[in-house]
Amino acid sequence: MHKMRSLFAVPYALWLLLFVFAPVVLILGYSFMDINGHFTLANYQAFFSSSNYLLLTLNSFWYALLITASTLLLGYPAAYFLTRLKHRDFWLLLVILPTWISLLLKAYAFIGIFGIHGGVNQFLNLFGIPAKQILFTNFSFVFVSAYIELPFMIMPIYNSLVEIDQSLVFASYDLGANKRQTFTKVIWPLSLSGVNSGIQAIFIPSLSLFMLTRLIGGNRVITLGTAIEEHFLITQNWGMGATIGVVLIIVMLLVMSLTRERKGDGSR
Amino acid sequence: MKQPLIEFKNITKTYDNDVNVLEDLSFDIEEGKFYTLLGPSGCGKTTILKMVAGFLQPTSGDILFNGRKINDVPANQREINTVFQDYALFPNMNVFDNIAFGLKIKKVPAKEIAQKVTQALKLVQLPGFEKRGISEMSGGQKQRVALARAIVNEPKVLLLDEPLSALDHKLRLDMQYDLRELQRNLGITFIFVTHDQEEALAMSDEIIILNDGQIVQSGSPVDIYDEPINHYVADFIGASNIVPATMIKDELVEFAGKQFECVDGGMRPNEAVEVVLRPEDLELTTYEHGKLQVQVDAQLFRGVHYEIDCFDKEGNEWIVHSTKKSVPGQWIGLDFSPDNIHVMRLNESEEDFDARLESYEE
After folding, report:
1. Structural domain contains residue A194
2. Which residue of B has its CA nearest to A263?
3. Could you say which of A170, A185, A264 has the minimum Cβ distance to residue B88?
4. Count of A–B CB contacts within 8 Å?
5. CATH code, B231-360
6. Which residues lie below 8 Å from residue A19, measured CB to CB, with a gap of 6+?
7. Packing angle between helix A138-162 and helix A103-114, nearest 10 degrees?
8. The domain spanning residue A210 has which CATH number?
9. Average confidence (pLDDT) over B39-51
């Protein structure tokens, strides 16, 4: 019986070994190698002493923060109202639907919409506003990223809101709380797990977006993701690329530990 | 007469599907008493409770609180608190914060809050539980915290929505004593909703029995148990022998093919009625000595008594509670006194019933 069970675990163990453990070890290894394959600490030294890299890191953080904050600001109320609708399964489906479309396709669609002859500019022209450069700006990068990530914020928040027992809301009113107090003291704290999952699902990938920075941001926005891509594909400095990768992994772990669910005594 | 604390005046409640959950309902709740709304699920008792709490508005009619109309006063502005069926404790807070919730909303000073919470926990016999998390407690303990969270606000009325239904039998009995004692000590008006007639009889000052959104009978537990108004109440309030009968004249009733002396009256001669005989009022005796002759069909041992299932010659079923044993298949006699026979008219309203009782009971 016990043997059988271990046998079933083999594919998963292999998978983890090949696609999770091995790549991480490889990245770690490469980060300690120079361009000729010799052991060195120069990559880390370069990363932490160069104002360019630190600025890049800060830049990535800033945009990831902007994207996450805007999805949270838009996503939380959206999720909240979704839970109150009559046919909420249908509306939720409409929220999920765009995630079934290829990311690349959506990015190209926005090139059409935001382009100098695109829909937005044509609309502005109707009111006599001259065509503006919208594509390849920081704004369009944040906007499109937020649009694409939005469902991943709405869904976990929606799930955590739906799970809140309606009688808790009644209990709060019963004990004298008004709508605002009920929200801040009961609904918001109980939906925090969803908010945390949403932040994790968006902030971390946003740190390393590189396709959107190119297609929508026009390479004006350079993030850690873009830098990694450049090092691996263009400058062929794998060691440096791997070093940035390691830094990203550490940052991700930090974010995860900051937003992880605190199970404990139930007190705040 | 004293001003009732809560008055329901001709309350009708209709939901979206046009079904009247409550129909033209009127009753008064007096201060400081323990009321029980008793009825099967779907009788409208929870709807009444939600209206008192302020979670539902009546479709028509008025709810008065101390003589003032409160139809449109929201739940958070009523001096009424609820103990919910599933406790509804906030899982993100510990016991202290749960109980302090209402006081913090009212901006009571922190020192006073701490003092009141400690006192409330003592009242529900959970001293020292302040720091406990909600998930670390048993059902009975959660129940007590929910109770403490409600009474700490010193409401005028405490609503209890089937609070004991999730507890096991022994705990439920303990809580019945505790609730009754708490109500006496605090002097708060309790409105307790249940479908369990034992709970209702054990704890209440007043029982209001509901069926299909209407009040069938209201009164003290003893009144309702001894003088059920009709078949529905008699059946609901406990195992009873209810058989069809004919009222020959005042104080003489015929059932099971025989005529018996009784103490009821005020009916038409030869009116078709029903009689109730409580299982514990029937006594086993020999075939010759019995007023009624029945054959034992089956017997169950219930601990404090035997429950004996018998049939008379006309096929009426008789259930007897007796400490004496009997033998299935045997013909035996049943003995009872005239005042054990309770006669019920068919389709009599509560007003007519009360008036008739008064007419021959002086």
Report:
1. yes
2. B92
3. A170
4. 77
5. 2.40.50.140
6. none
7. 130
8. 1.10.3720.10
9. 91
Confidence bin at A24 (pLDDT 50/70/90): very high
Residue B66 and residue B3 in contact, taking contact as beta carbons nearer than 8 Å: yes
Q: Where are the alpha helices (DSSP H) in chain B?
A: 45-53, 95-105, 110-123, 139-151, 169-186, 197-203, 221-226, 231-236, 350-360
Query: B321-342 pLDDT, tens per residue?
Result: 999 888 899 999 999 999 899 9
Is A21 a domain residue?
no
Q: Give dist(CA A28, CA A217) in Å, integer.
A: 30
**In chain B, whose CA is at the least distance from the CA of A193?**
B92
B156 touches chain A (CB under 8 A): no
A113–chain B nearest CA distance, Å: 45
Structural domain harbouring A98: 51-259
Across the interface, of A176, A189, A266, the residue whose CB is closest to B102 is A176
Percentage of chain A lying above the pLDDT 70 cut: 97
Instruction: Judge: A167–B149 Cβ closer than 8 Å, yes or no.
Output: no
Task: Please give the residue of chain B at the shortest CA–CA distance from A188.
Answer: B92
CATH topology of domain B6-226: Rossmann fold (3.40.50)
Nearest to B106 among A172, A176, A189 (CB): A176
- B17 in contact with A, Cβ within 8 Å: no
Q: What is the pTM of this model?
A: 0.82
* Cβ contact A266:B94 at 8 Å: yes
CB contact under 8 A, B105 and A175: yes
Domain chopping of chain B, boundaries: 6-226, 231-360
- Report the residue of chain A nearest B76, measured CA to CA: A176
Domains B6-226 and B231-360 share a fold: no
B133 phi and psi, to 5 degrees? -85, 155
Please report, rounded to a whole number, the percentage of residues in chain B having pLDDT higher than 70: 99
Within its chain, how far is the Cα of B175 from the centroid?
16
How many domains does chain A fold into?
A: 1
